[in-house]
């Protein structure tokens, strides 16, 4: 491996940047991959520092049972036997898996196959529930499938880019760089930012709508109403390719009759609101990028559909430079969606509510045990652990004790759970202190497989070095447990290529291309072709021959006006504005908003290993508006206490007009291990979107006081 650059992908966000890496003098060096269509050589600060995080410090190097080092065989046999005993006594639904968008697609596929297909429990969910499950639900309602219509090159073809619910500059930095570059080349390109905060992303915005948190549905319903008023609806598209328009317009119109009043509720000036609406109405090529500010809400699915409604009403979808575009947070949240890593989905975009799909998957996996009903979504799943309904949980590549809302309940649940297995690269995380069995997982740079980014592009992640200690790839760990449970034949995979091929075959199995996710061209992939696979967007069908040119070509869904609903027409959803589940009151008068910072990732288990990433922002902080700080007698850079109905956190006060009066902001990253008082999950309650199950992490009533 020494002295050779190996093409792989970044371990962090859903942009999915291509990286070239090599090992030199036992160190990993990285640079941007100029050929990768996601980033064309660009990397952000986190990607640049990735090599520095490939170190042995802090790694979990051997399997452990109750804190004592053991052999792999003993650990795996104990897991298989304990699962079987629990199944015998309480039934399969007493077992749960909690996965992660950090896993590779092959890992995700075998975990889902084992749980839903062979253990026979639907209780497998993932931290992607916290990330994009509202987008999944919104896509399915509108398109009949979880299909992201667009691709990154639309950013260079758009004339108006709307960024809503995203601090793109810090959370998807390379896409921010692409838009900045596009603006320099095209001075007519306009950017509208919709975000309650004045973030770094405002630097590329021609217009900033700092709307009141939670009012997104009203904003986009107002847009739909405006489009009708100014006669900018595309009736040809509406009549030929959609259903439900009249009801959606009726709700939107009823809610937003008075423009001035609407602007007041949204907290923006009527002039700014009109400008945004005018640009959407008059500019042909419009992309709406949206992320967690939309998804992490008790009405996240409605927010997604309110955006899609406006694109359908104007036919701004399925064309170059057009479309609603959800940005996934994690490197492989999309891969997880594809192979059914969520409690309410089956593999390869097959659906629970379709008996034909159930039969097809049972046949393909040759199993009688395939579950018939969706399982518990993340919040419900940890509730069920707390109440004792679930007796065993296997957590892989994620740190729910920090990342889930109401972390006190998560801790209590894991403490009370009779059997907790954790697979992780790191020895000390907030979660694995509750593990009966700890399994050392191979890390980025040590494992091999595929990931799918926000634009549906499948890229290879390649190993650069042997795993540290006795660490093993997640797919290997899962299949070994499966074999020890007696499912040898179904899990007899020699390597990740065989898993990927089986997944590709499933996408085309008796399917005749009737669904969106089709990888039929990969059915007979050889090991060499897999190893050398260049980044490619799905679908990858037989007609899409694997020539070098076509490997990087972009597929735009819905360019024929056909969708995946029974009628082949897209569905307008009549979405009514609902306020956030919690309300501010005299005890908790401020709204807490949460998000990422530029140089950290998730719960910092990896990014904290690169010292330079901690120089940007070294500790947890609370952004407070100067007026609120004065009223609460809080002094800049001193410690402040922030309290919700769930708990209290202490962090450094950063007084700033980036937040509006009445609103505060805190980053999500700090854990108990890293900062005993800055763990934000202690504050967030467990309100979820009723359709998607995604928690409302962007709206928590809190109060402030000096420490
Ligand atoms: Fe990695 Fe995302 Fe940065 Fe690209 S933008 S280098 S994928 S963290």
UniProtKB/TrEMBL annotation:
Its cofactor is [4Fe-4S] cluster; Mo-bis(molybdopterin guanine dinucleotide). Residues 3-58 form the 4Fe-4S Mo/W bis-MGD-type domain. The keyword Glycoprotein does not apply. Residues 448-469 are annotated as: Disordered. It comes from the Bacteria. Keywords: 4Fe-4S, Iron, Iron-sulfur, Metal-binding, Molybdenum, Nitrate assimilation, Oxidoreductase. Signal peptide: none annotated. Belongs to the prokaryotic molybdopterin-containing oxidoreductase family. NasA/NapA/NarB subfamily. This is Nitrate reductase. It comes from Zooshikella harenae. The lineage of its organism: Bacteria, Pseudomonadati, Pseudomonadota, Gammaproteobacteria, Oceanospirillales.
């Amino acid at each position: 491996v020494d002295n050779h650059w190996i093409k792989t992908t970044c371990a962090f966000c859903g942009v999915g940047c291509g990286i070239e890496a090599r090992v030199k003098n036992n160190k990993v060096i990285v640079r941007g991959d100029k050929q990768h269509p996601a980033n064309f050589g660009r990397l952000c600060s986190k990607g640049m520092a990735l090599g520095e995080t490939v170190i042995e410090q802090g790694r979990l190097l051997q399997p452990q049972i109750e804190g004592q080092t053991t052999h792999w065989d003993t650990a795996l046999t104990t897991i298989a036997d304990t699962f079987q005993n629990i199944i015998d006594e309480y039934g399969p639904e007493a077992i749960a898996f909690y996965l992660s968008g950090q896993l590779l697609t092959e890992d995700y596929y075998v975990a889902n196959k084992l749980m839903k297909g062979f253990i026979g429990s639907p209780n497998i969910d993932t931290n992607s529930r916290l990330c994009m499950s509202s987008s999944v639900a919104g896509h399915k309602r509108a398109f009949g499938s979880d299909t992201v219509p667009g691709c990154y090159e639309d950013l260079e073809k758009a004339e108006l880019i709307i960024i809503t619910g995203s601090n793109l500059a810090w959370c998807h930095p390379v896409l921010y760089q692409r838009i900045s570059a596009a603006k320099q080349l095209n001075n007519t390109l306009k950017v509208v930012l919709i975000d309650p905060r004045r973030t770094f992303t405002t630097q590329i915005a021609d217009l900033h709508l700092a709307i009141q948190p939670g009012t997104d549905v009203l904003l986009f319903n107002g847009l739909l109403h405006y489009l009708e008023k100014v006669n900018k609806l595309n009736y040809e598209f509406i009549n030929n390719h959609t259903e439900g328009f009249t009801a959606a317009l009726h709700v939107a119109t009823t809610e937003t009759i008075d423009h001035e009043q609407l602007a007041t509720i949204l907290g923006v000036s009527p002039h700014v609101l009109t400008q945004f609406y005018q640009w959407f109405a008059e500019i042909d090529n419009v992309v709406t990028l949206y992320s967690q500010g939309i998804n992490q809400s008790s009405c996240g699915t409605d927010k997604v559909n309110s955006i899609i409604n406006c694109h359908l009403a104007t036919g701004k979808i399925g064309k170059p430079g057009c479309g609603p575009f959800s940005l996934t947070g994690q490197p492989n949240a999309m891969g997880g969606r594809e192979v059914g890593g969520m409690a309410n989905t089956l593999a390869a975009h097959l659906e629970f509510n379709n008996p034909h799909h159930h039969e097809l998957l049972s046949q393909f996996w040759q199993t009688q045990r395939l579950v018939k009903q969706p399982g518990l979504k993340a919040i419900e799943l940890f509730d069920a652990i707390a109440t004792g309904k679930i007796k065993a949980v296997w957590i892989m590549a994620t740190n729910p004790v920090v990342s889930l809302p109401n972390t006190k309940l998560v801790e209590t649940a894991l403490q009370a759970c009779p059997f907790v297995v954790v697979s992780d690269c790191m020895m000390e995380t907030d979660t694995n202190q509750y593990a009966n069995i700890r399994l050392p997982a191979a890390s980025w740079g040590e494992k091999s497989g595929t990931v799918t980014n926000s634009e549906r592009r499948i890229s290879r992640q390649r190993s650069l070095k042997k795993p540290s200690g006795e660490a093993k790839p997640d797919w290997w760990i899962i299949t070994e447990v499966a074999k020890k449970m007696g499912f040898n034949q179904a899990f007899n995979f020699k390597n990740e290529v065989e898993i990927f091929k089986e997944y590709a075959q499933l996408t085309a199995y008796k399917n005749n291309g009737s669904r969106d996710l089709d990888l039929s061209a990969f059915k007979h992939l050889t090991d060499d072709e897999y190893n050398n696979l260049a980044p490619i967007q799905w679908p990858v069908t037989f007609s899409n021959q694997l020539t070098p040119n076509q490997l990087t070509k972009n597929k735009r869904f819905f360019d024929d006006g056909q969708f995946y609903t029974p009628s082949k027409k897209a569905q307008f959803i009549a979405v009514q504005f609902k306020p956030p589940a919690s309300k501010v009151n005299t005890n908790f008068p401020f709204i807490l908003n949460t998000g990422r910072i530029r140089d950290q990732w998730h719960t910092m288990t990896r990014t904290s290993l690169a010292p330079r990433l901690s120089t940007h922002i070294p500790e947890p902080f609370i952004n407070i508006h100067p007026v609120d700080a004065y009223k609460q007698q809080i002094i800049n850079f001193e410690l402040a206490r922030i309290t919700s109905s769930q708990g209290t956190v202490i962090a450094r006060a950063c007084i700033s007009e980036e937040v509006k009066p009445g609103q505060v902001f805190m980053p999500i990253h700090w854990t108990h291990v890293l900062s005993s008082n800055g763990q934000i999950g202690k504050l967030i309650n467990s309100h979820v979107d009723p359709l998607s199950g995604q928690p409302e992490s962007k709206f928590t009533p809190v109060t402030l006081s000096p420490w």
